[in-house]
Design brief:
The protein is 33% helix and 22% strand. By secondary structure, the chain is of the alpha/beta class.
Length: 179
């Protein structure tokens, strides 16, 4: 049996984007898995930003979130944002644990990363899918941290842990100044 699929009245793509997601100025998203050692660096940065928020406030409307890297969830978190800042662990070959890469989406093009996500499907797929669906934030800044250890367990390796505080400051500057 064959049938046709028709959208429900009022459920067009524009209505979905406008009505289903609250618009926010800035989304800061930590990506990863806090139970896979260095893969939890995004979560650690977001936790530290929240701790510092009273003394180092980010602009009104800034939302903090953590995510496992699923492309659909990432898109949902940054949808409608003027600026999305994403922090994720990465694998690079050759790698230097704790080294941070800054990538910025500019005019619909993201530079090819020299590192890859530590997730099977991840940020690159989310960016491409969001581009196709018209759901990219106005501006996307990605901080990718090269990891040393993605084994099961908690806690960051020394090299990645040492990158957290400078990365927190970099995110605060990016979100606070828009640069």
């Amino acid at each position: 049996m064959y049938g046709s699929v028709r959208p429900m009245p009022g459920w067009g793509a524009a209505n979905h984007r406008e009505g289903m997601r609250t618009r926010t100025g800035i989304a800061v998203i930590g990506v990863g898995n806090e139970f896979r050692r260095d893969d939890g660096v995004g979560w650690a940065v977001v936790a530290r930003l929240k701790e510092r928020a009273e003394d180092h406030p980010l602009p009104a409307g800034t939302v903090f979130a953590t995510c496992d890297g699923d492309p659909g969830r990432l898109i949902g978190l940054w949808e409608g944002a003027g600026l999305a800042v994403v922090v994720d662990a990465a694998h690079a070959h050759p790698g230097t644990p704790g080294r941070v890469h800054r990538l910025e989406l500019d005019a619909g093009h993201i530079a090819p990363p020299s590192a890859t996500s530590s997730h099977g499907l991840g940020l690159g797929e989310a960016v491409e899918l969001a581009r196709v669906l018209g759901l990219l934030p106005e501006r996307l800044v990605v901080y990718a941290v090269e990891g040393a250890d993605s084994d099961f367990g908690t806690g960051l390796s020394a090299a990645v842990a040492a990158a957290v505080e400078p990365l927190v400051v970099a995110v605060e500057i990016t979100a606070g100044s828009g640069s």
